[in-house]
Write a structure and sequence with these properties.
There is one protein chain. By secondary structure, this protein is mostly helical. The protein is 74% helix and 0% strand. The chain has twelve helices and no strands. It is elongated, with a radius of gyration of 28 Å. It starts with a helix and ends in a 6-residue tail after the last helix.
Length: 337
């Protein structure tokens, strides 16, 4: 066990040194070219900078998406304000109802020009909103992917317990409860305010908020006053996105649970003859460590075999002396005197 521990520790150091070399090259750091080499501190610094850059890029993508949606909604509101003579609040409210596909039906275009504009606006609105939501969900899914990897690497009691793999972890339960709790609070606030502004009963308030947040929009109840429409213009956007995020979080957690169960079953199931032949890529009658690792990753769906083959082919192209390793000269990172 002590020898195995030392081997794993040494292997981790090697992996961190290689990761530092890769990130140093990608990040543009010149620690290798300067002749000083990339140590562990350099690798950690490069990793920190890379993560910081990714976070800022995610924030910029969210800001761009929100800015695009805001500009589009205001442009539509300006048109309807001029051609339909609606107030700015009613015009913005109509654009939000159209963009979120709620479609109460309390406001409709009446002139031929407005109807023609609405035809184009609806199509463009759906595309823009979907693109913006796709951008937002991409950021959410990136974070969910990192959480998924962390869950797979740290399964919290799922190492030798299938029952533990089949149930949500404490962090997953908290994540689902937080997302749905946020939607519940947003819905509760909306019910109270909309019910107060429109003088609705508590049942009608809940009914109205759920129908709106789910974008069903029957049209039997809709905001009537300017103050209600002003609040609804903001609340509809927040509530629909919140509900979509809650559903996406639940789906992500359930996917993580299924992946853990699949990983457990794959790892703890004995190899069949077919599995053995599939893992023995070079057909030499033996399964090497790299063959077993890559084969299991492919079977779990974490990586595609074509991608692995392309990576290995790239490795062999750079390993010009065919010694199974890529040195600094072969990588084109020879130290400068």
């Amino acid at each position: 066990e002590a020898t195995l521990g030392l081997d794993m520790e040494e292997g981790e150091k090697v992996l961190r040194r290689r990761k530092g070399s890769v990130y140093g090259s990608v990040g543009g750091l010149e620690c290798q070219a300067s002749g000083s080499g990339c140590g562990l501190n350099d690798a950690d610094e490069v990793e920190r900078r890379r993560l910081t850059s990714e976070r800022w890029e995610e924030r910029r993508a969210v800001i761009r998406a929100l800015a695009g949606v805001t500009i589009f909604l205001m442009a539509g509101a300006a048109f309807y304000h001029v051609w339909e003579g609606w107030s700015w609040v009613s015009s913005a409210y109509f654009c939000v109802v159209v963009a979120t596909t709620v479609g109460y039906g309390d406001l409709t275009p009446s002139t031929p020009v407005s109807k023609l504009f609405t035809v184009v606006y609806v199509v463009v609105a759906v595309m823009i909103i979907l693109a913006a939501l796709a951008s937002l969900f991409e950021q959410v899914m990136d974070s969910q992917e990192r959480l998924l990897v962390n869950r797979l690497l740290n399964p919290e009691g799922c190492v030798d317990d299938l029952a533990g793999c089949q149930s949500m972890t404490a962090s997953e339960k908290m994540e689902v409860l937080t997302s749905f709790g946020t939607f519940f609070i947003i819905g509760l606030v909306g019910s109270c305010i909309l019910g107060h502004l429109e003088h609705l009963s508590w049942l009608d308030s809940i009914y109205f908020t759920v129908v709106t947040a789910s974008t069903v929009g029957f049209g039997d109840m809709e905001p009537n006053s300017e103050s209600t429409r002003l609040f609804a213009s903001i609340w509809i956007l927040i509530s629909t996105i919140s509900l979509a995020h809650a559903i996406g979080t639940l789906s992500s957690v359930r996917a993580a649970v299924r992946q853990r169960v699949l990983a457990y079953q794959t790892i703890h199931t004995s190899l069949s003859r077919g599995d053995y032949r599939a893992l023995d890529r070079d057909q030499d009658g033996q399964i090497s460590q790299i063959e077993y690792l890559t084969g299991m990753l492919v079977k779990l769906g974490n990586v595609d075999q074509i991608l692995i083959d392309e990576i290995l082919e790239r490795f062999h192209d750079q390993d010009r002396d065919r010694d199974g390793e890529i040195d600094m000269d072969e990588a084109g990172l020879a130290l400068q005197d």
